[in-house]
Each structure stands twice: as C-alpha cells, then as structure tokens.
Write a structure and sequence with these properties.
Pfam families: DUF5127 (PF17168), GtaA_6_Hairpin (PF16335). This is Glutaminase GtaA. Keywords: Signal. InterPro entries: Glutaminase_GtaA (IPR052743), GtaA_central (IPR032514), GtaA_N (IPR033433). There is one protein chain. This protein has 699 residues and is α+β, with helices and mostly antiparallel strands. It folds into 2 domains: 285 residues, Beta-galactosidase, Chain A, domain 5, CATH 2.70.98; 264 residues, Glycosyltransferase. 34% of the residues lie in helices and 23% in strands. The strands form 8 sheets. Strands 1-7-8-9-10-19-16-13-12 form a 9-stranded mixed β-sheet, with helices on one face. It is globular and about 80 Å long. The N terminus is likely disordered. The protein binds 2-acetamido-2-deoxy-beta-D-glucopyranose (NAG) (10 copies). One 2-acetamido-2-deoxy-beta-D-glucopyranose binds next to strand 8 and strand 9.
C-alpha cells in the first residue's frame, strides 16, 4: 500500500507539488543525509532517471523517502505541527500532510542543509551533519550522524509548535521479512532518550541487499521535559502526532517483520510558543557493531572490533558521547568544510568546491575504522561494483582524499593488504586485487584466484606506498615492506613494458594487450621502487631500477604515442594510432615527483584533451561514450591551466544537470550525463579522486 502511494506521488509532475528551491553550490544527483560507513549510508534521490526506484524528485526532502545507497527505502520521516495544523518536512508518510515549502538547499563537505517555509509563519533550518574527523580516530570511529532541526517564527508572531521525527525498522536488515526487535530507553544519566532497534536473529558478518544483518541501531534525542515517544505501526504513530501533537509514551512489544505494519519509532517534542528565537532539536542516528571485520592477518582469521569499542565501554556511552558532542562537532565540521572549500577554491575555483565537497562524505562513507588504537585499520568496501573489501584499484582512485586529509589513513588502508600477503597467504608473485570477495570478510585469497589485475595492482601498491611515505616522512614503512615491494617490482620489470592481455582497473572494458596507460603505470611503479630503494639505503637497487625505468619510458614513448595524429596523443594500445584513452596514470609521476616522463608528454596530452570534450567531459577512451569522474580529475590535475579548468567546469555542470539519481556515479554518458547503458555505479569511494589536485598542492 505504501509503495502504491509512492508511485502515485512520483508519477505527478513535481513542479506542481513544490515551490522552487535554490540549490547551492549545485543540485547533486542524490543528497547525502546520513553517510558515515558502508552500512550507515542514506541518501535522498534527486536526479530524474527512472531506474533504481527513481525518479528522484529534484532534490526535495519532503514528499519522497530517503534510500539506502543500493536504492531500497530507509524509512525516515518528519512532521511539524504549527498552530494545530500538521505538515510533512521529511519523507513520504501516509497519511501524508501537505509538504512544507523548501526554499533552499546547500551542501558542504559534511553538511546537507534545507531551509523550509511553513505557511509563511515558521522557518525550519534542517541540517544533516555526518562529521568527518580525518585526524581524530576516536571521533571518526563512531558511526553516527546528526540531524539538527531549528525552528523559528518568521512572521513576527508567536506560534504553537510541535516537532516530530521517526525512523522505521527498514534500517536494521535488507530482508524486509526479517523480524525486528526494539526497546526504548534513557541513558544512565538521564540526558538522552533513545529507541534501540535490531534484527531479532543477529547474523554476524552477513549482508542482505547490501545492508548489514547485525548490530544495534540507535535513534536518539535529548530527554527534554516535553518529549514524548512511541513505537508501533507507522500510520498509528504518525496519526497520533497529527491528532494531538504528542505521542503516547507507549512501547509496542509485538516484535514482527520489518514490512509487517512497518514498526516505527517516533519522537515528538512540544516546543511550546515559538517566536523569532531559534529553537533547536537534535537527533542522532547510527549503528553499533562490536565486531566489525573478519580478517585473515598474521595470526590467521580473527575478529577485528570496531575501533570505538576501545574508547567506550558500552554502546550507550558511545551514543552519549556523540550526541552531547554536537556543539564541538559542529565547530570542527565548519573548520573542515572551510578548509576544503578554501583549498579547493584556491586550487581550482568555485566549480572545484562543488566537486570536492560533494565527494567527501561519499569517499569516507565506504570506510570504517577498526582494531585498537595501537593497531588500527581502515577497512573499505568496494560499494556497488562488487562489494569486495580493500580493493587495491579502488583505494588507488580514492587515495588523493586520504593523502590530502591525513596520509596515515592511507597507511591504515594498505596495512591489511601487506599483513595478509607478508604472512604468506597469497600465492601469486603479483599484488592481490582485494582482500576478500565480500565485505566485511577480509579473509584473503589463499588460492590466488581473485580477479587478476597484475600490472594494475603492483603499480598501485608501489605508487601509494611511496606517496604515503613521502607525505608522512615514514621511510621505516618502506624498509618494513621492502621485500614484498621488490617482489612486485620484479613482476613489473618482466611485464610492464609489453603488457599481456590483462584487465586494468576499468575491468568492464575487458582485457586488452599493450595498453599504453597500463604500461605507464607499471613503469612508474618501477621508478617508484627506485625511490623506495634510495630512501632505504638500497643503493644498487636504486640505480638499477632507475635505469630500467628510464630505458622503458624511452621505449614507451615510441610504442605508445601516435605522433602523426592531429594533434598527437597517446594511444589506447600500442600501434592503434586512431585510438586514445585518458592517460590518467601519468598522475603518479607528478604526485611522486619522479621526473620520469618528459613535460612534452604532459603538454601533448593536455592539448589533445582540449580538442575532444563532449557536453559533460572527455570520454574514457576512443571506443566509449562514457566519461570517468576520477580519471578526468586525475588528468585535469596535471594538465595546463586552461585544460584543467575545462575538465572542472564540465564535471561541476554534470553534477548539477545529471539525470542520474543516486549517490555520485563515477561513470556517466559524456553527452547525456545519464548512466551508461548497463553500468550503474553509485556511492563508490573512488570519488575521493576528486581531491587529486589538492593532494598535489597541499603540503
Ligand atoms: C507553499 O507555497 C505555495 C505557493 O506559494 C503556497 O500556495 C502553499 O500554501 C505553500 N505551502 C506551505 C506549506 O507553506
Ligand atoms: C542553518 O543552520 C546551519 C547550521 O547550523 C547554519 O550554518 C546556517 O547558517 C543556517 N541557515 C540559515 C538560513 O539560517
Ligand atoms: C518495552 O517493552 C519491553 C518488552 O516488554 C520491556 O522489556 C521494556 O522495558 C519496555 N520499555 C519501556 C520503556 O517501557
Ligand atoms: C550525561 O553524560 C554526558 C556525557 O558524559 C555529559 O556531557 C552530560 O553532562 C551528562 N548529563 C548529566 C545530566 O549528567
Ligand atoms: C562472511 O562470511 C560468513 C562466514 O564466515 C558468511 O556467513 C557471510 O555470509 C559472509 N558475508 C558476506 C557478506 O558474504
Ligand atoms: C512544554 O509544553 C508546555 C505546554 O505546551 C509549554 O507551556 C512549555 O513552554 C513547554 N516547555 C518547554 C521546555 O518547551
Ligand atoms: C604488443 O606490442 C609489442 C611491441 O610493439 C608487439 O611486439 C606485440 O606483438 C604486441 N602484442 C599484441 C598482442 O599486439
Ligand atoms: C639517492 O639519491 C640521491 C640523489 O640522487 C643520491 O645522492 C644518493 O646517493 C642516493 N642514495 C642511494 C642509497 O641510492
Ligand atoms: C637489475 O634488476 C634486474 C631485475 O631484478 C636484474 O635481473 C639485474 O640483474 C639487475 N642488474 C643489476 C646490475 O643489479
Ligand atoms: C603509428 O604512428 C607511428 C608514429 O607516430 C608510426 O611509427 C607507426 O607506424 C604507426 N602505426 C600504425 C599501425 O600506423
């Protein structure tokens, strides 16, 4: 019944339903609401594409349900009652009071803020804050998000106002027939009221429809005098508020399936008489899982705890800390937002702020801090493409955001890969592709039958390890992992100049021999190893690998450049003179300051790109209509200034105009801006590559 109602709503023309909102700095394909980890990952769809449960409604908070990144609804509703009349400010509850008028939307790196006008008499300022703490392990380890609803009178009068918000049990499992259980409580020192909701049968390490199947969800607010709560059938709970402005303080104990009379967990706050003084109500929503990852490390398969368990004795202490930390969190978030916006504006202008600030929560939102303060790890899920954990060629496109915000985070991503392979649990000479087929199981590939991308992953590991060591001045890390880095280098020396029929990271393009850009990555990997050898006192290796890399790069220029083309450019593969691909791997040469590739190659590519722009950017290669978000930005960050500006402008325009309707896709049709046929990536951490220019310019 709910579903039919939603279809009816989305079938109507939205311009008739909504007064127009402004969108700043852009109207993203989907708006991040609570985006903190692979499982706390909730969005409001905006773009008009009709796939994936869409179309999105254009970027309005009210009138449409929020969704998990994978597309299924996550019930989260908001109502407000002003002088006895109810309105909907979030979600699409039925019964469905008229929606408030959204007048503006704005996003920063950590916040999505909606301003609502309620009948010209009350203004609401609704802020979703998913804080990012790149250098504060304790705070970053908490997988909660804030919702701050600020209400004030806007017509000079005073108004009687009650505020309501709820979530449903849809958060606790991807299986809508799973039985949910819940409880209501007050934290020990009486400061916070919370609904705790969980899957009755906990399935450790399991996912269903990409959602996690264990742990406890918390939906909390300040335990103020005029707070009421209720759990129960969605329609009853919301109707109670609409009728009386308060809830029954009742606890439904009929634990049942998520979709059976949708169990709903409401809070209502009577704000009393509201004048022009802003009144704030804060909610916290998030997940606690004591056990986070199954990791096959140096001592075999172990359960790795969530890092927050080292700082807090109980889930309620973690929740209490997070919730009561809001004033501090808001200040730190403003500092972080300003830093990104300031740096991005200086490096690439306003359009670059549009791109980087939208990518930040998405990139961090695929990761989770685990382990202990002495041995922390950052685990990453390859969201949407196949759910692998610690995928090397996903960490690589994402890694600029970690280098920029805190290089140690890159180390924490690489550590589990080194540990598993150095303990002899991976049989191949080349680097593994990922640490396990399905997050959260980092159980390795003892049979060595992971998706083979040998040159790609060896090059990525060498480049990222040196990039981290340079930024963090940590040469001990290079010594510690020298043997394995050298093993991968031998593979590259044997295979990189004339690459076999291999996949590269863009595996949907299929295998191809003699890929020009893949060869370049391998050669840069060898040159990176020469630096690593130099920094660790391995003099003979340093000079040997350095001369091998120089020799290869000379040959590569003959093999991979279509000199007679107009204008000249590198090819997709050797000898295929009427082809091209974006030469994004050139980034490594600049990033590591290797000086391996002559400036003439940079200039040549920069001139060439400027001639092949389509509406929303440059296609990935000459056989494709699709453009790659990250690889364009890698190329942009090492191009001449005017070409850089062309890329940044095209991508910011795409963000604002794209009909794609989920969290940023990293692959889109360069002409229509929609998903390419058959490939609908979303919410992938690779968008951290947006920070490629910042990783080069920051110190
Ligand atoms: C929204 O704006 C429209 C057009 O101005 C107006 O008719 C309607 O009453 C407003 N609704 C609310 C809830 O403010
Ligand atoms: C809304 O709240 C946010 C965060 O609290 C604040 O930065 C912003 O200025 C407010 N906007 C308006 C229009 O009041
Ligand atoms: C809710 O019901 C459960 C089950 O009867 C009970 O354990 C719990 O104490 C109740 N909570 C409240 C706040 O009434
Ligand atoms: C409850 O605990 C939080 C976190 O320790 C603290 O900030 C708050 O002041 C406490 N409240 C009371 C009433 O003790
Ligand atoms: C992880 O492994 C466990 C067995 O240890 C399995 O039950 C679970 O389904 C796996 N998780 C995923 C997401 O595949
Ligand atoms: C609680 O509600 C009453 C009745 O609406 C109101 O008079 C009072 O101001 C409210 N108290 C607070 C703290 O908002
Ligand atoms: C790859 O390039 C080398 C050097 O030009 C050439 O000898 C070889 O035949 C090519 N391999 C394929 C499969 O085209
Ligand atoms: C490292 O490179 C520097 C500068 O080229 C050189 O002087 C030094 O001898 C090298 N060290 C090693 C161990 O190769
Ligand atoms: C340079 O390295 C290659 C590959 O490991 C090796 O075969 C060769 O013997 C080395 N040359 C010297 C002079 O060490
Ligand atoms: C490609 O162009 C190069 C010069 O840039 C030329 O040497 C080579 O013969 C060309 N290859 C083909 C297959 O036309």
């Amino acid at each position: 019944m709910l579903l039919q109602y939603i279809l009816l709503v989305s079938a109507t023309t939205f311009s008739h339903c909504y007064a127009a909102s402004t969108f700043s700095p852009a109207r993203p394909p989907a708006i991040p609401l609570a985006v903190k980890s692979p499982y706390v990952n909730c969005w409001q769809q905006a773009g008009s594409d009709s796939d994936n449960g869409g179309p999105g409604n254009g970027g309005y908070l009210a009138g449409q349900w929020p969704t998990f990144w994978a597309g299924q609804i996550l019930g989260w509703a908001g109502l407000i009652r002003v002088d006895g009349t109810s309105y909907t400010w979030m979600g699409a509850p039925a019964p469905f009071p008229t929606v408030v008028n959204q007048t503006s939307f704005e996003y920063t790196s950590t916040r999505s803020t909606f301003i609502m006008d309620v009948d010209g008499v009350v203004e609401m300022n609704i802020t979703f804050l998913s804080p990012l703490y790149p250098t504060d392990m304790m705070r970053q380890s908490l997988l909660f998000s804030y919702l701050d609803v600020v209400v004030s009178s806007s017509d000079g009068g005073t108004h009687d106002v009650q505020l309501y918000a709820d979530i449903t049990a849809e958060w606790v499992s991807g299986d809508r027939s799973a039985i949910a259980e819940w409880d209501y409580g007050i934290t020990p020192n009486d400061s916070i009221a919370y609904h705790q909701i969980y899957r009755q049968t906990q399935l450790l390490w399991s996912e269903n429809d990409q959602q996690t199947e264990y742990g406890n969800w918390y939906w909390a607010t300040d335990n103020v005098p005029n707070l009421t709560f209720e759990s129960g059938f969605a329609d009853d709970v919301r109707e109670a508020f609409i009728t009386s402005g308060a809830l029954g303080n009742t606890n439904d104990t009929d634990y049942r399936a998520i979709s059976d009379d949708y169990p709903t967990f409401g809070f209502a706050v009577d704000l009393g008489s509201v004048d022009s003084t802003a009144v704030s109500t804060l909610f916290t929503l998030g997940l606690t899982q004591e056990q986070a990852i199954q990791f096959d490390g140096a001592n075999g398969d172990v359960s790795v705890p969530s890092l927050w368990t080292s700082y807090f004795a109980t889930e309620l202490e973690a929740l209490t800390f997070f919730h009561t930390d809001y004033a501090n969190a808001a200040g730190l978030a403003t500092t972080f937002d300003s830093q990104v916006a300031g740096d991005a504006n200086a490096a690439g202008g306003a359009d670059y702020v549009t791109i980087t600030s939208l990518a930040a929560r998405q990139a961090f939102g695929a990761t989770q801090l685990c382990g202990t303060p002495d041995t922390p790890y950052l685990f990453l899920k390859e969201i949407s493409s196949d759910g692998n954990i610690q995928t090397v060629d996903v960490i690589f496109p994402a890694h600029p955001i970690f280098l920029y915000t805190n290089p140690t985070l890159l180390k924490l991503l690489l550590d589990p890969l080194f540990i598993n392979q150095e303990s002899g649990q991976y049989p191949n000479q080349y680097s593994m592709h990922d640490l396990g087929s399905s997050y959260p199981n980092a159980t390795g590939h003892a049979a060595g039958n992971d998706e083979a991308q040998p040159i790609e992953e060896c090059g990525n590991m060498l480049i990222m390890t040196l990039a981290y060591a340079q930024k963090a001045s940590n040469t001990a890390y290079l010594s510690q992992n020298y043997a394995l880095l050298d093993q991968w280098t031998q593979y590259l020396i044997e295979n990189a100049l004339i690459p076999g029929d291999q996949l590269d990271t863009d595996d949907f393009t299929g295998p191809l021999a003699n890929r020009t850009d893949l060869a370049l990555k391998g050669i840069i990997g060898i040159a990176a190893m020469a630096q690593i050898a130099n920094l660790t006192g391995n003099t003979d290796d340093a000079s040997n690998y350095s001369s091998i890399a120089d020799n290869y790069i000379t040959q590569w220029q003959t093999l991979g450049i279509a000199m007679d083309a107009d204008p000249p450019h590198t090819t997709l593969a050797y000898g295929m003179n009427d082809t091209y691909s974006i030469l994004y791997n050139l980034y490594g040469d600049r990033e590591l300051n290797l000086g391996l590739v002559p400036q003439t190659v940079y200039d040549m590519q920069s001139n060439f790109y400027a001639t092949i722009f389509e509406e929303y950017g440059v296609p990935l290669d000459s056989s494709a209509d699709y453009a790659d978000f990250n690889w364009q930005l890698f190329a942009a960050s090492i191009a001449a200034e005017d070409t850089t500006a062309m890329f940044i402008s095209a991508i910011a325009t795409w963000i604002n105009e794209s009909p794609t309707n989920r969290a940023l896709t990293d692959l889109y049709d360069a002409t229509s801006g929609d998903y390419p046929s058959g490939i609908e990536f979303t919410a992938r951490p690779v968008v951290g590559g947006a920070f490629s220019l910042l990783a080069l310019t920051s110190t």
